[in-house]
Amino acid sequence: MNTTSGWLAIGALSERTGCKIETIRFYERTRLLPAPARSPGGYRLYSKDHLKRLTFIRRARKLGFSVDDVRKLLKLADERSDRAPRSGWWLARTWKMSGPRSRISERWSGSSAIPSPDVQTARRPTAR
C-alpha cells in the first residue's frame, strides 16, 4: 500500500516492480539499493528514486547481467557528472564488458554475433 506522504511501503514497491520482498531486502543488504527511510514504527519507506533504481536492477538482471555487473553499472551511473551527456555513455562503456555483451547477443540471435546496428538489415529473432 502507498503511504499518504508519497512514500512506498515494501509491499507496494514489490507489487510495482514485480520483485519479491526478500529480494528487495537482499538488494539492500548488498547495497545495490540504498537504505530506505523508516516510519516511526520502523517500517521501510521507499522513495521514487528507490523505485527507479529497483526497476533498473530488475531490467538489467532480466538481460542476464550478474549482481556484480549491475553493481558496476550502478556505480558508473552514480559517478557520472552533471556535465556528462545524459545519453547513457556509461552504458556504452560497460557494453564493452565481454560477459554481459556475449549473454545479450546470444539471447538476441542464438549465436555469439552481435546483431547488425543497420536498421535496414537488422532482423528480429524468430520465435522458437
How does this model look, in words?
The chain has 128 residues and is mainly alpha-helical. It has a domain of 87 residues: Multidrug-efflux Transporter Regulator, Chain: A, Domain 2, CATH 1.10.1660.10. Helices cover 50% and strands 3% of the residues. It has 6 helices and 2 strands, in the order H-H-E-E-H-H-H-H. About 12% of the residues have low confidence.
Regarding CATH, which class of the domain at 10-96? Mainly Alpha
User: DSSP helix count?
Assistant: 6
CATH topology of the domain at 10-96: Multidrug-efflux Transporter Regulator, Chain: A, Domain 2
H/E series: HHEEHHHH
Question: Could you estimate the helical fraction of the residues in percent?
Answer: 40-55%
Adjacency order of strands in the biggest sheet: 1-2
Terminal CA distance reads 39 Å
Strand content: under 5%
Kindly state the number of beta strands: 2
User: Are there runs of 5+ residues with pLDDT below 50, and where?
Assistant: 110-124
Overall morphology: globular
Main structural class: mainly alpha
The CATH level-2 architecture of the domain at 10-96 is identified as: Orthogonal Bundle
- The overall pLDDT, averaged over residues, is 75
Largest sheet: 2 strands, antiparallel
Rg on CA atoms, Å: 18 Å
